Amino acid sequence: MSTLENLVDIPNTSQFQELLSKDLKRISLIYFWTSWAEPCVQMNQVVEGLAKAHPKLLALRAKAEEQADITDSFDINSVPTCLVIQGHALLARIEGGDAAQLTKTITECLGNKSSVAPQSTTSQPPTPALSSETPEQLEARMRGIMNQSAVVLFMKGEPDTPRCGFSKTAVALLREKKVAFTHFDILGDDSVRQGLKKLNDWPTFPQFIVKGDFVGGLDVVKEMKESGEFEEVFFT
């Protein structure tokens, strides 16, 4: 837990939006990370160092898997990812543990804000698409997909072309363990994407389903692998 006033660990979407909207002229750094990605260890220190060196900078740390709405709204596909914004303008997007580039970007943005051209604008978390399905029909369809094979992976993209780092890791884990599975690309069906979050009471993807039952997200299944519980759950 940081003692710096300008370095905040984001607990929820509402506080995130409140902090950003307080001063639309302020330069903000949004840092997406996870505890299990090795490059994030170094970048955590870099972000904290930048916050300490630049009191005018607002540095926000968001755990990518826990803050699904924020992660999805900024289309975060891998960690670590750093976004530098001013108001609703995206000034820079830095993916991977490129500490030198992040430091240079922050220095340039704070030193001469007008010289940095916005790359795009930010938006609020996306609104689920309207569907003609009733809630009962949607749940029946989702349960049908969950039971289409012994193991089903709800992911972003296809197994050979995953659209986010978490999905890529999930596919690699199942293939490493030689688990036969089918998949469903949640990016192609927003009704299923939003519905599964409620049905399984789990806000992020990928989601692992075994014999029709939700067993967890990536962190949970990684823990199963480390504890030896994986084989019992996926092969019995």
UniProtKB/TrEMBL annotation:
Keywords: Iron, Iron-sulfur, Metal-binding. Residues 12-107 form the Thioredoxin domain. PROSITE patterns: GLUTAREDOXIN_2. Residues 114-132 have a biased composition (Low complexity). GO terms for cellular component: cytosol; nucleus. Residues 113-137 are annotated as: Disordered. One of its GO terms (biological process) is intracellular iron ion homeostasis. It comes from the Eukaryota. It holds the Pfam family Glutaredoxin. The keyword Transferase does not apply. GO terms for molecular function: 2 iron, 2 sulfur cluster binding; disulfide oxidoreductase activity; metal ion binding. Gene3D superfamilies: Glutaredoxin (3.40.30.10). Residues 151-215 form the Glutaredoxin domain. This is Thioredoxin-like protein. It comes from Suillus subaureus. The lineage of its organism: Eukaryota, Fungi, Dikarya, Basidiomycota, Agaricomycotina.
